[in-house]
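so im writing up the methods section and need the Endolytic murein transglycosylase record in one place, dumping it here so i stop losing it
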Amino acid sequence: MAEKDSKEASKKDFIRNSMLERQGEARIVRKVILITSLAILLLAAATGLGGYFYIKSALEPRDPQNKSLKTIEIPIGSSVTDISTILEEKGIIKNARVFKYYIKFRNEAGFQAGEYKLAAAMPLQEIVESLKQGKVMQQAALKITVPEGKQLVQIAGIIAEHTNEKPEDVLAELNDKSFVKKMQARYPKVLTDEIHSKHVIYPLEGYLYPATYAFAEENPGLEKIISEMLKKTESSLSGYRHAMDEKKYSPHRLLTIASLIEEEAAAKVDRGKIASVFYNRLKAGMPLQTDPTVLYAKGKHQKRVYYKDLEVVSPYNTYKNKGLPPGPIANAGKSSIEAALNPANTNFLYFLATPGGDVLYSVSLDEHNKKKADHITSKN
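--- predicted struct ---
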């Protein structure tokens, strides 16, 4: 009996010791996990803090005490990356990459080639503003200005006028498949395969950004001229990439919507409201019914659209087809692009441009027709 009790006691001691041992091991494991987790958190915090201070430092003047001016030359055709690299190499900024992201984050554009007097003590924003005041623009051998709202046919005419080419020859080159493919390979982020969609009339329509372009040579060649225009479009759209990704907009979709806004909006018109009408109609499954698409489908410029014009058979005719047209119908400026991304919050489904240049908005067709009778029909 005593031997049995002894065995039972030994068994209990063994179990107890095993439990204590396992508890001890568990405590050690918990300590290891806790210490490891703390180490990881501290490392992440240190990395994040280090990154914060690194960027903060890179955004500060390179040398606040050095106010001596250096002559910096920004060549014609320089990209944001080129400019950033030049400024870092010349000792004006601390970090070219951070400067480039700073420009994109603030959606800065309009940098001009020229000769600048810059100092290492200058804040980044002061440098940015200086870079918009180039002197080479006045000294360029060739300047081509492309206004907002121009169509490819018109832009071909503008280029021809400055290069002694025939408009039809310029237009033919702009639509040449091998030329378009070459431009697409050079700017794939902007020129997606959507430009080759079956019903698109001109692949580069809407992609030649409205701006003034300066060239050092008198005859830079069409390829260089168009390349500069596409580079401008690429740099301009880069500042909207986050908003485009959020809305799942490709450059083609964005520029198509923006072109409709551009063609419908006068100088004093609220583009955000016009954009809201388009989006409200799209959401409601209504045709956009915008006159500029009819004129684009006809390939004509008219002061007004007649009922017979609305019958034109074309994928671009938004009276006959729901949704967006196959592609842009003109080049859009910054304000129209921003309106396409940030439309006003309205419930308008109609707008009416008056002879005086005002735009009247309506929620219902009855309301729209009444305004039409009051402001359009009564004037004729």
